[in-house]
Amino acid sequence: MENRLNIQNLEPEAYEIMFALENYLQKSQLSKTHLELIKIRASQINGCAFCIDMHTKDALRNGETTQRIFLLNSWKDTKLFTQQERNILAITEEITLINNDGLSDKTYLEAEKLFEKITSLK
């Protein structure tokens, strides 16, 4: 796959911020599986073949199954994903498509029930 832009050279400050966010997320309560599901699903929505390729390879290296990756774009119609994962995927879609309606109260309230850290921040 051909790289069109090298963001590290073009916008080094933006690259550093993105890298810092990645480092922060690696230390968060989200598992490697959760992080890769987020990255793959957002990349699918954004139509970025380079990112889908990169993140699916990372997910497979971290133990994700091919079946779950194949069905990720239809996650609502399969029982292969846990309740937490389904909520994470709903959040990912709503934020990636933020121009539609943003993160819904329903999805946020579900996250509050599923993720302890959100509740402790209130």
Characterise the protein shown here:
With 122 residues, the protein is mainly α. The protein has helices spanning 7-10, 12-26, 32-46, 49-61, 66-70, 83-96, 105-114, 116-120. Helix 3 (32-46) packs parallel to helix 6 (83-96) and helix 6 runs antiparallel to helix 7. The model has no long low-confidence stretch (mean pLDDT 89).
Summarize the structure.
With 122 residues, the chain is an all-alpha fold.
Tell me, briefly, the overall form: globular
Helical residues, percent: 55-70%
N to C succession of SSEs: HHHHHHHH
CATH architecture: Up-down Bundle
Set out the fold topology.
Blueprint (H helix, E strand, L loop, with lengths): L6 H4 L1 H15 L5 H15 L2 H13 L4 H5 L12 H14 L8 H10 L1 H5 L2
Helix pairs in contact: 3-4, 3-6, 6-7
Attribute tags:
AhpD-like; 66% helix; 8 helices; mainly alpha
